[in-house]
Each structure stands twice: as C-alpha cells, then as structure tokens.
C-alpha cells in the first residue's frame, strides 16, 4: 500500500521528556529526535541514561540530565536546563512513572502511597507549573499570546488505570485518574493563552515498569486485576505510540487540547 507521506515536524521545538532512559519515554525521545526536536532527556537512572545517550544521540540534539523528579528542586532546575542549553522550552512530556504493587486501600502502606502519588502526580504537577510559567514568559517576550499561538504543549502520560478501577493498585489508579484532572484543568485554564495540555492513556506496553512489583506483589489485588488483563486485546507498540505523542505535540494538532487519548487496542472500551 502506498505511504500517506505524512511527516511529523517538531523542527525548532525544544522538549523535556521525563523518564526517558527506558520504555515509553525512550520511544518518545526517539520519535521527537526523528521529527527534528531538540530533546532534554531526564531520568533518575544514570547508567540507563548513559546507554540511552549512546543509542539516541546520533539521531539529533540530545541533552541528558540525571534527575529525580520527585524532589522539589528538580522541576525548576530542569526547565532552567532546557532554557540554558537550547534557549527556550516548547514541549513538556510528563512520562516518568512508577507502578504500585496492586495493594487495595485496606492494605496500602501510606509511605508507599506517598511515594507513588509524588512521582506519578505531584512531580508532573510541579513540572507543569514551571513549564507553563516559562511558556507564558517566552510567549510574552515573543509577542505571541493568543489561542492557537503554539506557546507550549504538555503531554501527560496516563494509563488505562486512569479509566478503570480494577487494573492496578489503589495508589497507581488514583494517581492516573488525578492526572486526567490535572490535564483538563491545565487545558481549560490556558487554552486562551496558546498553551495546550493533553493526556495519552496507553494499554499494556513491554517496558521495565513491572520491576517495581517483583518484591511485595499483592496476590489478592493482582488476581482481581488479572480478570481485566485476560480481556486485553493486545500490547501497544512503543515506537508507534511514540510517534503519536510526537504528532500530538506538533503544531499540526494545534486544535488538540484537553484530549484524553486512548491507546490500548480498545481495552478500556470493554
Ligand atoms: N508499561 C505499561 O504497560 C504502561 C501502561 C500504561 C502507562 N504506562 C506509563 O508509561 C510511563 C512510562 O513507563 P514505562 O512503562 O516506560 O516504564 P519504565 O520503567 O520502562 O520507564 C520509566 C522511566 O522513568 C524513570 N523514573 C522513575 N522514577 C523517576 C523519578 N523519580 N525521576 C526521574 N525518572 C524516574 C525510570 O528510571 C525509567 O527509566 C509511566 O508514566 C507509566 O505509568 C506504562
């Protein structure tokens, strides 16, 4: 079949991608570099980030930053790093995330709840706060302030767990549901100022995320989730989904704002 010839263009864009050393974040970084973006790739895992740099740096402008996004200063520092290194910031992809261990509320260790909520919800909120401030500052300096002026884009990485209750533990499910709220409030608050915010909701992907629950897996919670796993139509291809994120962050989708984008072969629809 003939190709549609559709090109994804992020030329001249500067993007921060969190959790870029592995899995989905790495696939997004690859798609962004192929589309011409300059990428600031952040991850807590220094050795994986180093490996990722070796693999992806031939594709384009890539700046690696080892950072733990759950720490207070990481968000302002990362935004500053993008501006210092590439002169501006256009796109933030809040991808970094950790899984819980399928604990329901009666079993959850509240310190572990705090850890999952901090990484999966508070950190994206903090990153968004400083990114939005930079989008607004840069837009005003450039004299571009209206709706559709492409001042900045945030893509949050949600999950089927942002739609469904029985697919993960209470901490992960709560964080991913709340991320939808963060997305929609951000979209509605800044749509008239040329800033967009969307959320992608992947189904199952082959990544390293399951390492988190190797120890301390809640058998009862896991068995409940297994029922939904049994009707999963299939795994989502990382590289193809990375391309969708790149397209959704490009100026060609300047109409896309507050969108909750399912990407799960129809799993959440069941
Ligand atoms: N794998 C799946 O089936 C699946 C499904 C739906 C959604 N997701 C979401 O996709 C996103 C990416 O996860 P993945 O599946 O690629 O997992 P992954 O474990 O392969 O990658 C996550 C990356 O985030 C990094 N990270 C974790 N905590 C961090 C922190 N505090 N600071 C900086 N970096 C940190 C990790 O080091 C890792 O490189 C997550 O938000 C996850 O919830 C995954």
From TrEMBL:
Family: Belongs to the short-chain dehydrogenases/reductases (SDR) family.
CDD domains: SDR_c
Protein name: 3-oxoacyl-[acyl-carrier protein] reductase
One Pfam family here: adh_short
PANTHER family named among the record's database cross-references: DEHYDROGENASES, SHORT CHAIN, ESTRADIOL 17-BETA-DEHYDROGENASE 8-RELATED
GO MF assignments: oxidoreductase activity
Organism domain of life: Eukaryota
Keywords: NADP, Oxidoreductase
Cell membrane among keywords: no
Gene3D superfamilies linked: NAD(P)-binding Rossmann-like Domain (3.40.50.720)
Origin species: Cladophialophora psammophila CBS 110553
């Amino acid at each position: 079949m003939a190709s549609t010839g559709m090109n994804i263009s992020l030329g001249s864009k500067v993007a921060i991608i969190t959790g870029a050393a592995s899995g989905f974040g790495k696939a997004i970084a690859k798609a962004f570099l192929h589309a011409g973006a300059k990428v600031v790739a952040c991850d807590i895992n220094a050795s994986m980030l180093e490996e990722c740099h070796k693999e992806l740096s031939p594709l384009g402008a890539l700046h690696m930053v080892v950072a733990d996004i759950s720490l207070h200063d990481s968000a302002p520092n990362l935004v500053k790093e993008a501006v210092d290194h590439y002169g501006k910031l256009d796109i933030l992809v809040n991808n970094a995330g950790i899984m819980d261990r399928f604990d329901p509320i009666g079993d959850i260790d509240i310190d572990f709840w705090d850890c999952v909520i901090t990484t999966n919800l508070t950190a994206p909120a903090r990153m968004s706060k400083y990114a939005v401030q930079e989008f607004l500052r840069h837009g005003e300096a450039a004299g571009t302030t209206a709706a559709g002026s492409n001042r900045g884009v945030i893509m949050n990485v949600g999950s089927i767990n942002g739609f469904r209750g029985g697919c993960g533990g209470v901490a992960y499910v709560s964080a991913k549901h709340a991320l939808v709220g963060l997305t929609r409030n951000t979209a509605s608050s800044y749509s008239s100022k040329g800033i967009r915010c969307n959320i992608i909701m992947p189904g199952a992907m082959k990544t390293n995320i399951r390492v988190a629950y190797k120890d301390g897996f809640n058998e009862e919670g896991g068995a409940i989730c297994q029922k939904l796993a049994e009707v999963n139509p299939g795994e989502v291809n990382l590289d193809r989904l990375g391309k969708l994120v790149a397209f959704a962050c490009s100026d060609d989708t300047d109409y896309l704002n507050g969108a909750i984008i399912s990407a799960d072969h129809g799993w959440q629809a069941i």
